[in-house]
Amino acid sequence: MVKAKNISFDAGEKKILKKVSSNFENGKVTAILGPNGAGKSTLVKCIAGTITPKTGDIEFNGKNIKSISLENFACKRSYLNQQFNLSVGYTVRDIVSIGRFPHYKVYPSKKDDEIITSAMKLLDVISLSDRTTNTLSGGELQRVHFARTLAQIWPDSSEEQAEKKLLILDEPVNNLDPQYQHSILKSAKDFADNYNVCVIIVLHDLNLIAQYSDYSILMKQGEIISKGKTREVLTEQLLEEVYKVPVSIIKNKNNFNIITGIKYNQIKKELIK
Amino acid sequence: MTQRVKLTYISLFILLPVCIVLGTSLGAFKIEFKQCANILLNLFGADNYSDFTNPQHNVLLHIRLPRVFLSMMIGAALAVSGAGLQGLFRNPLADPGLIGISAGAMLAASIAIISGLQFTNGFLGYYSISVATFIGAITTTIIVFRLSKAQNSTNIATMLLAGIAINALAGAVTGFIIYLSNDDQLRDITFWSLGSLGGADWEKVIALIPLIILPIIMIARLAKKLDVYALGESEAMCLGVNVNSLKRKLVVWVTITVGACVAIAGMIGFIGLLIPHITRLLVGPKHRNLIWISAILGGLVLSIADLLCRLIVAPAELPIGILTAILGTPLFLVLLIQQKRKING
Q1: Which secondary-structure segment (H or E) carries A16?
Q2: Of A262, B56, B293, B316, which has the fewest CB atoms closer than 10 Å, so is most exposed?
Q3: ipTM above 0.85?
Q4: Bridge-partner residues for B35, per DSSP?
Q5: Is there a contact between B238 and A74 if contact means CB atoms under 8 Å apart?
Q6: Which of A48, A74, A106 sits opposite B240 (nearest CB)?
Q7: What backbone phi and psi angles, to 5 degrees, belong to A139?
Q8: Distance between CA B95 and CA B267 in Å, rounded?
Q9: Please, are residues B25 and B57 in contact by the beta-carbon 8 Å criterion?
Q10: What is the DSSP string of A205-243?
Q11: Residues A118-139: pLDDT tens digits?
Q12: Tens digit of pLDDT for each residue in A106-118?
């Protein structure tokens, strides 16, 4: 469980975050959405601990993250950034292995090796194992880094009593085709459902948010303007107001989908005619 | 360890004694390979071989052998420093000159030379230029490091720019000092800037051992962290690496060891840039192998380069900085072009 309390962050004169507070549940996927420049990435960076907020505190499983050592936090929380550095010459397996870095001293154990292989299989990058990262396509690279991020907090059967883990993904479906967009979000959701991981995803695609998130936080200009269960927060009226495009929501008991750019109901009437 | 890495280690360890024998037997003063081997064996108590003369024994043990050791140590230190800094700047073109070490050393050495420090007597007098150079190198790096600090964290891009600025300033002041110098001093400054391993003796070797071996070990211990750092700064933080401490440790050890090398041998370029580059082609970018193999390869290459310096214009000697640059530049360009072709398919 993560609690963000009164988080503010400035970049020079510009106020990026204005006293943002929110809780993120274990075993649930929480999506953060909002227009460009809303402060979504800054908020998740504060939660991941890569930047320090100007005011406010982040609590992870009841402890202030400032009081958790870097090494310890690294075994519990992993974070997928929006951009990657080109790590020239490293192979795909090298990159995924780096995800296990916090768990071993000099050389990875047999268990670490198994986890690395499992993560690569899950993301379908095992066939790329020995390719160097500069020969990969954008989508392949994205999957490799996602595999690294999962390997870092891969569930470990010997740690059943251990603290719950945290997975933070900043736009994880960049560059991906629809097949992998769904498979990546599905793996994230599986981590939440099966291993009680707290998953936080910054995502733009409203339809994917509708399908994969349990909770949603809608941000605009450094403030949270609505939060709660995804089905309750995401309404046509609110989304149209925020994004200034037509939005249609199609839902019944089992399905919840969002289309942007057209009003579905008007077309449906014409089609029926 | 992969097959390729093992093979590289084995071949380098075979080349090491070959380089020692070549470096001690070849030169203006003639010593046969066999005699050379016998003198070296004699050191280890096998005294039934004695087909060599006393001068040969002395030249080999007190002039050539320390020189070979010195060149190997300095080559190793420069190569490891280059590998470390390339990791820190996440750029294969980084070298120790970038953070102001060489410019500061050059400035300090010029000041020491024109102020006539080297003519003072006594222990410190003999080593005065070395001591001044070492202090100069460390001072400039401290300035560069301080300038790049903002809110308790070191910004690598600022460090690069601060390095360029301090290099330019130190260069200008050095220019002014050269303007003030007389002909003899000018000659001294010029030769100092071209580097030399002449005047090697056991005292220098022993003085350098802690300043080279310790930093190499400490830099090698950062290897795993440098691999993580290659992913990016925030990634490294999320994977439990204290990036500020990593930067500080790396800069401290590099400055100490390169400062010591420059103090003893003057400016020797291209080793720090080129050796890690070649090593990466041999064994890949992971820092544990990169650092150790760079160390051995750097030692080998510099000892061979020094040998060539002694042979090409024997009985005179070529400044070693000239040779490393003349051989290094074309090799570097070939590597660059090859790499570019590889990336562009």
Answers
A1: strand A14-24
A2: B316
A3: yes
A4: none
A5: yes
A6: A74
A7: -70, -40
A8: 13
A9: no
A10: -HHHHHHH-SEEEEEETTEEEEEEEHHHH--HHHHHHHH
A11: 999 999 999 999 998 888 888 8
A12: 888 999 999 999 9
